[in-house]
Design brief:
mainly beta; elongated; 2 helices; two-stranded antiparallel sheet; eight-stranded antiparallel β-barrel; 12 strands; Porin
C-alpha cells in the first residue's frame, strides 16, 4: 500500500492563510455569520464553513500498473476530507475548497453564482474552481541522481493545474437550528459534483523539503501521468 503525504504542502500555506484572513475579516463585518435564516431562505450575505467527505476520480491505470510492476504497491481509492470556507454575497459566492487525506488531493479557489431562488427547497450554485491537483508519496523511491543531504525524507510528488465546474447543492428542507447558549446556529446539509480538466503540464518530481520549506527535486519523465479529466463528488454539512 502506498503512503500518501496527507498534510497540505507547505508552499500553499501563504495563499491559504491570506484567503482565510480575508474571509474571517468579512465574517466580523457580517453580524449574521450564517448561511440561512430559520425560515429556510438563503441569506443575501453570509460567511460559512462546510465540512464533509468526497471522492476524487481521475484516470490512473498507467500509474497503478507502474507501481505494481516496480514496487508491488497499489493505492486504494480512499475518500477525502472536504473543507470549504467561503462567502455568499447576494447571488454570488467565492471561497477556498480542499479535498485532502488520500493519495491525490485538490486545493483551489472558486467563484460562482446561485441558480435557484431564495426560498427553493434545494439551493443550487454553479462555481468555477481553479487550483492544484496534487499527489505525494513517501515509500516510492524511483532512481534519482540528485545529491541528497543525509537525514532528508524523500518523497514523490505530482502537481498539475486544474479547472473545474462545480455544482453545489444545499438541501434547505433538511435545515435545522440547534441552540448554542442563546444563539441558534443554522446547519444545512448538501452535496456537490464537479467535472474538471488539467490543461497544462502534469509533472512528477522526486526530492525533499529543506528547513525553509523549499522543495529540492528533479523532474521524472518515465512515470505515467494521470489523465487530464477529473471528477469529484461529495456530501457536506454547512455552518
Amino acid at each position: 500500500m502506498l503512503k500518501p503525504v496527507i498534510s497540505i504542502p507547505s508552499f500553499f500555506w501563504p495563499a491559504i492563510k491570506t484567503g482565510v484572513i480575508c474571509l474571517v475579516g468579512l465574517l466580523f463585518t457580517n453580524p449574521a455569520g450564517a448561511q440561512l435564516k430559520t425560515s429556510g431562505k438563503t441569506k443575501d450575505s453570509a460567511t460559512y464553513l462546510s465540512v464533509g467527505t468526497s471522492k476524487l476520480f481521475v484516470q490512473r491505470q498507467g500509474f497503478d500498473q507502474w507501481t505494481r510492476a516496480n514496487f508491488n504497491l497499489t493505492e486504494p481509492y480512499r475518500p477525502n476530507i472536504y473543507v470549504d470556507f467561503g462567502r455568499l454575497y447576494y447571488r454570488a459566492d467565492f471561497g477556498l475548497a480542499v479535498n485532502v487525506g488520500s493519495a491525490f488531493e485538490t486545493v483551489g479557489g472558486y467563484v460562482g453564482g446561485r441558480l435557484t431562488g431564495a426560498r427553493s427547497p434545494i439551493g443550487s450554485w454553479l462555481n468555477l474552481e481553479m487550483g492544484d491537483f496534487l499527489g505525494a508519496f513517501t515509500n516510492i523511491k524511483p532512481p534519482t541522481y540528485n545529491v541528497v543531504p543525509a537525514g532528508q525524507q524523500l518523497q514523490l510528488n505530482y502537481d498539475s493545474f486544474y479547472m473545474s465546474l462545480v455544482s453545489k447543492n444545499y438541501l434547505n428542507f433538511l435545515q435545522y437550528n440547534p441552540r448554542l447558549g442563546r444563539v441558534r446556529i443554522p446547519i444545512n446539509m448538501g452535496f456537490f459534483v464537479s467535472a474538471g480538466w488539467q490543461p497544462g503540464k502534469r509533472n512528477w518530481s522526486y526530492g525533499y523539503y529543506d528547513q525553509d520549506s523549499v522543495f529540492h527535486a528533479q523532474r521524472l519523465k518515465p512515470i505515467p501521468r494521470l489523465g487530464k479529466i477529473q471528477a469529484t463528488a461529495g456530501v457536506f454539512a454547512g455552518f
